[in-house]
Structure formats: C-alpha cells, structure tokens
C-alpha cells in the first residue's frame, strides 16, 4: 500500500501517524507541504530505510531539493498508484 502524506510534519501529526501505522512493505509518498520533512535532519533520520518517494513538483515549488528518497513526478505517481492500488492519504 502507498501511504501518502500531504501536510507539513511541523504543523500536523500526519507523517508521524503514517509511520506508526505503515507496514514494512508500504511505500511512503510525501507531497505538498509534507516534502519539507526531507530537509529536516531529525525527519531524514526517521525516514531512512523506508521506501520513500518525494513529489518533484512540490520540492521545486518550495525551492527545496531532496537528499533522501526518490523524486517522483505526477506521471510517476499515477504509475505507482496503478501498480500498488489506492493510497491511504494522510491529510488532517
């Protein structure tokens, strides 16, 4: 399953909850404001070793670059969802 997080981990507990409830085989996709997690050292440490995708467009819109995970564009996200099935979306 895909765990998709939309909100900043500094404003909500969405990312924390997604990590708590994800299974080992689940993929994690950060998009919208959640992408800020990939530039925060504490979050990078927590996300290490997890199959992680970060939306490229959202990074670019915020002037960020990801040091962890794999960057993903919208066509890539659509392919990922087609392969893995409907995502669990975390957006409070």
UniProtKB/TrEMBL annotation:
Any one GO CC term of the record: sulfurtransferase complex
A molecular-function term among this protein's GO annotations: transferase activity
Q: Which GO terms describe its biological process?
A: tRNA wobble position uridine thiolation
Q: A Pfam family name for this chain?
A: DsrH
What residue range is the signal peptide?
none
Record-linked InterPro entries: DsrEFH-like (IPR027396), Sulphur_relay_TusB/DsrH (IPR007215)
Keyword line: Transferase
User: What is this protein's record name?
Assistant: Sulfurtransferase complex subunit TusB
**Name of the gene this protein is made from:** dsrH
């Amino acid at each position: 399953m895909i765990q998709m997080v939309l909100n900043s981990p500094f404003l909500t507990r969405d990312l924390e909850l997604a990590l708590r409830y994800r299974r080992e085989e689940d993929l994690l996709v950060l998009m919208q404001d959640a992408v800020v997690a990939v530039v925060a050292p504490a979050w990078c440490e927590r996300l290490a070793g997890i199959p992680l995708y970060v939306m490229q467009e959202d990074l670019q819109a915020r002037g960020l670059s990801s040091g962890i995970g794999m960057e993903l564009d919208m066509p890539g996200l659509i392919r990922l969802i087609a392969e893995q099935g409907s995502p669990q979306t975390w957006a409070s």
